[in-house]
Protein backbone atom coordinates (compact mmCIF):
# COMPACT_ATOMS: atom_id res chain seq x y z
CA UNK A 1 0.00 0.00 0.00
CA UNK A 2 1.23 3.49 -0.78
CA UNK A 3 2.62 5.66 2.00
CA UNK A 4 0.83 8.80 0.85
CA UNK A 5 -2.90 9.25 0.46
CA UNK A 6 -4.32 10.40 -2.83
CA UNK A 7 -6.47 13.50 -3.06
CA UNK A 8 -9.61 11.42 -3.53
CA UNK A 9 -8.80 9.38 -0.41
CA UNK A 10 -8.32 12.58 1.57
CA UNK A 11 -11.66 13.96 0.35
CA UNK A 12 -13.43 10.74 1.29
CA UNK A 13 -11.87 10.72 4.75
CA UNK A 14 -12.90 14.35 5.23
CA UNK A 15 -16.47 13.55 4.18
CA UNK A 16 -16.58 10.65 6.63
CA UNK A 17 -15.43 12.95 9.46
CA UNK A 18 -17.98 15.61 8.48
CA UNK A 19 -20.76 13.03 8.31
CA UNK A 20 -19.81 11.70 11.73
CA UNK A 21 -19.69 15.18 13.31
CA UNK A 22 -22.97 16.28 11.76
CA UNK A 23 -24.67 13.04 12.72
CA UNK A 24 -23.65 13.57 16.36
CA UNK A 25 -25.38 16.92 16.58
CA UNK A 26 -28.73 16.60 18.36
CA UNK A 27 -28.60 12.79 18.64
CA UNK A 28 -27.27 10.28 21.06
CA UNK A 29 -23.93 8.65 20.35
CA UNK A 30 -25.42 5.18 19.98
CA UNK A 31 -27.85 6.20 17.26
CA UNK A 32 -25.48 8.64 15.58
CA UNK A 33 -22.90 6.25 14.19
CA UNK A 34 -24.25 4.91 10.92
CA UNK A 35 -22.40 3.00 8.24
CA UNK A 36 -21.86 5.15 5.18
CA UNK A 37 -21.73 3.48 1.81
CA UNK A 38 -18.91 4.25 -0.58
CA UNK A 39 -21.40 5.19 -3.30
CA UNK A 40 -22.92 7.99 -1.24
CA UNK A 41 -19.45 9.23 -0.31
CA UNK A 42 -18.37 9.25 -3.95
CA UNK A 43 -21.52 11.20 -4.88
CA UNK A 44 -20.88 13.64 -2.07
CA UNK A 45 -17.26 14.00 -3.17
CA UNK A 46 -18.29 14.88 -6.72
CA UNK A 47 -20.80 17.42 -5.45
CA UNK A 48 -18.22 18.89 -3.09
CA UNK A 49 -15.65 19.15 -5.87
CA UNK A 50 -18.12 21.03 -8.11
CA UNK A 51 -19.02 23.64 -5.51
CA UNK A 52 -16.80 26.68 -5.34
CA UNK A 53 -15.88 28.02 -1.94
CA UNK A 54 -15.54 31.77 -1.66
CA UNK A 55 -12.50 32.53 0.44
CA UNK A 56 -11.57 35.74 2.16
CA UNK A 57 -8.11 36.88 1.07
CA UNK A 58 -8.10 40.36 2.62
CA UNK A 59 -4.86 39.57 4.42
CA UNK A 60 -3.12 39.17 1.06
CA UNK A 61 -3.90 42.78 0.13
CA UNK A 62 -2.44 43.94 3.43
CA UNK A 63 0.71 41.80 2.97
CA UNK A 64 1.24 43.03 -0.60
CA UNK A 65 0.87 46.62 0.58
CA UNK A 66 3.48 46.10 3.31
CA UNK A 67 5.84 44.35 0.87
CA UNK A 68 5.44 47.18 -1.65
CA UNK A 69 6.22 49.84 0.96
CA UNK A 70 9.32 47.92 2.08
CA UNK A 71 10.49 47.40 -1.51
CA UNK A 72 10.00 51.07 -2.43
CA UNK A 73 11.86 52.21 0.68
CA UNK A 74 14.81 49.93 -0.11
CA UNK A 75 14.95 51.21 -3.71
CA UNK A 76 14.74 54.80 -2.40
CA UNK A 77 17.67 54.26 -0.03
CA UNK A 78 19.69 52.75 -2.88
CA UNK A 79 18.98 55.76 -5.11
CA UNK A 80 19.96 58.19 -2.34
CA UNK A 81 23.20 56.26 -1.77
CA UNK A 82 23.91 56.28 -5.51
CA UNK A 83 23.38 60.05 -5.65
CA UNK A 84 25.61 60.63 -2.60
CA UNK A 85 28.36 58.42 -4.00
CA UNK A 86 28.20 59.99 -7.50
CA UNK A 87 28.51 63.53 -6.11
CA UNK A 88 31.34 62.43 -3.78
CA UNK A 89 29.41 63.68 -0.78
CA UNK A 90 29.78 60.28 0.83
CA UNK A 91 32.72 57.99 0.25
CA UNK A 92 33.43 54.46 1.28
CA UNK A 93 36.87 52.93 1.01
CA UNK A 94 37.08 50.61 -1.97
CA UNK A 95 33.97 52.04 -3.66
CA UNK A 96 34.47 54.64 -6.38
CA UNK A 97 31.96 56.14 -8.81
First-residue to last-residue Cα separation: 65 Å
Radius of gyration: 29 Å
- Biggest sheet layout: none
Please provide the count of β strands: 0
Percentage of residues assigned to helices: 55-70%
The proportion of strand residues reads under 5%
Assign the structural class, choosing from mainly alpha, mainly beta, alpha/beta, alpha+beta, or little secondary structure: mainly alpha
Short précis:
This protein has four helices and no strands. With 97 residues, it is mainly alpha-helical.
What features would you describe in this structure?
This protein folds into 2 domains: 7-50; 57-97, no CATH class. The longest helix is centred in the last third of the chain and has 29 residues, at 58-86. The mean pLDDT is 77. With 97 residues, it is mainly alpha-helical. Helices cover 66% and strands 0% of the residues. The protein contains 4 helices and no strands. Helix 1 (7-24) crosses helix 3.
Furnish the topology, listing elements before pairings.
Elements: H1 7-24, H2 29-32, H3 38-50, H4 58-86
Question: Can you give keywords for this protein?
Answer:
single chain; 97 residues; mainly alpha; 66% helix; 0% strand
Amino acid sequence: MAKHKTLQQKKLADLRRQHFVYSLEGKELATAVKPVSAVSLNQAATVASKTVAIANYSYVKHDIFKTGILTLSIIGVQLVLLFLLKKHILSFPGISY
